[in-house]
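Service request form, structural biology core

Requester: graduate student, group of Dr. S.
Request type: structure prediction, single chain
Budget code: on file
Notes: please return the result as structure tokens.

Sequence provided:
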Amino acid sequence: MDFVSIRIITGDVARLVDFYERATGVGANWATEDFAELRTASATLAIAGTRTVPLFAPRAARPADNHSVVIEFLVDDVDGVHRKLAGFVKDFVQAPTTMPWGNRSLLLRDPDGNLINFFTPVTPAAIARFAH
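Core staff response, request fulfilled:
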């Protein structure tokens, strides 16, 4: 089995796609006005509108209601990402901080309130975990 994507349901697909394109530097591939994907080498972030929910199961997902999932992006320089996003992101949760497990992490919220972690491994053990 391969983990390939995570999907965010939103009430405003264009707004959220624009945010993630700007925050990650990854361009979106649009399938319809209700569905776009930002593809990286290891996984895809899919963004879908509320009109797609009934295709799976009515009321199975609610936009802007995530309080348990953190979307994480491995980056080369988390402090550089913080500087780049400083004039753009409205809701930083935590400035770059080195965590006990060896990653330097930046926590912020997207426009729907989803928690995002940009991180860079900085200790030898953390670097080894992400070596390709």
